[in-house]
Amino acid sequence: MTIAPSYLPAEHPPVKFGKVGVLLVNLGTPDGTDYTSMRRYLREFLTDRRVIEWSPLKWYPILFGIVLNTRPQKVGKAYETIWNKDKNESYLRTYTRNQSDLMGARLKDLPNVRVDWAMRYGTPSIASRINALKDEGCDRIVLFPLYPQYAAATTATVNDKAFQHLLKMRWQPALRTVPDYHDDETYIEALANSVTKHLAGLDWEPEVILASFHGIPLSYSEQGDPYFFQCQKTGHLLREMLGLAKEKFMITFQSRFGPEEWLQPYTDKTVEKLAQDGVKRIAVLNPGFVSDCLETLEEIAEQAAHSFHENGGEKFAHIPCLNDSEDGMRVLEKVVRRELLGWV
Ligand SMILES: C=CC1=C(C)c2cc3[nH]c(cc4nc(cc5[nH]c(cc1n2)c(C)c5CCC(=O)O)C(CCC(=O)O)=C4C)c(C)c3C=C
Ligand SMILES: [Fe+2]
Ligand SMILES: [Fe+2]
């Protein structure tokens, strides 16, 4: 819609309004695997006080003195092993863009809705895509942090970043933030389908299935972050839907960073211990990740598989994330349509 010229001066430029934007936001990813791109990305990520809650007085000497001098090379090499060479980008970027395109197609019955995507760290930034939606005439935006379980380090920092940008706008869009959906039935069903389908394609059956979630420092949880309990509930509902006995299903936490204690049990230690205890066949899924990324493709499908075999395990399967699959899109669409209610 464009403002009718009758109540604007003749020389006023046309103003677009009356549309609704949906902005899908994932964590972020470096633009390349080289030192400079990695350092820029990690710097933005690790100076976020929702991620590292230590005082900058204590953290910055370590970050700028050690971490940003060593980690970019190390993590750059890990990214190289999982880089989407066809598109010259990480899979997290490929899947997030696909999710946005597919969501746009699935919402074709709502002609006033525009769908776009952004990253909390790196590009495209949340600010640039809010501006683009606004320029297209979206005066209402549904902001969807792509995390099924709420954590301050992920969901809240996406919301913070969007509202920080709104601080600078004269004509702000109305912003609706999308809550977590850790116990949504369609989500649990999609996870269960994905496990069943993937295991049906193997010529062996896992003795144990691990649901591995990204960890957070234990202290964040103790200060009231609901993340741990939401992961437990997702895992519990998934186990029930799969009809698995307690001994066949475990919830673990991966991707520890720094010296603090994180949520336990740790995925890497659990995988090692299972193999050492004589378990020969396991499957691992990552229900907390909407899309496959470094943490699932490298840390689990490569490193955890390697460690399982090194310690005596024989068969290891990584069950992919829901990504841009039909089941995965059904979950995202359900959440978006619910949050659009009253606006379309
Ligand atoms: C204290 C540090 C970190 C917290 C807390 C944290 C929480 C957290 N992260 C995700 C999802 C992802 N993290 C990813 C990479 C990643 N995470 C951290 C640190 C913390 N994460 C770092 C330093 C990195 C970069 C890689 C590395 O240096 O090890 C990614 C992958 C991005 C990609 O491009 O592939 C995701 C996704 C969640 C869900 C979460 C808390 C619940
Ligand atoms: Fe992380
Ligand atoms: Fe990691």
UniProtKB/TrEMBL annotation:
Matching CDD domains: Ferrochelatase_C, Ferrochelatase_N
Pfam families for this protein: Ferrochelatase (PF00762)
Catalytic activity: Fe-coproporphyrin III + 2 H(+) = coproporphyrin III + Fe(2+); heme b + 2 H(+) = protoporphyrin IX + Fe(2+)
Keywords tagged on the record: Cytoplasm, Heme biosynthesis, Iron, Lyase, Metal-binding, Porphyrin biosynthesis
EC class (word): lyase
InterPro entries noted in UniProt: Ferrochelatase (IPR001015), Ferrochelatase_AS (IPR019772), Ferrochelatase_C (IPR033644), Ferrochelatase_N (IPR033659)
EC number: 4.98.1.1
UniProt binding sites for Fe(2+): H214, E295
Pathway(s) this gene product operates in, as recorded in its UniProt entry: Porphyrin-containing compound metabolism; protoheme biosynthesis; protoheme from protoporphyrin-IX: step 1/1
Predominant cellular place of this UniProt entry's protein: cytoplasm
UniProt superkingdom: Bacteria
GO molecular function, one term: lyase activity
Ranges in coiled-coil conformation: none
Location of this chain's protein in the cell: Cytoplasm
PANTHER family: FERROCHELATASE, FERROCHELATASE, MITOCHONDRIAL
NCBIfam families for this protein: hemH
Functional summary from the UniProt entry: Catalyzes the ferrous insertion into protoporphyrin IX.
Family, similarity comment: Belongs to the ferrochelatase family.
Name the record gives this protein: Ferrochelatase
Record organism: Rhizobium mongolense
Gene assigned in the entry: hemH
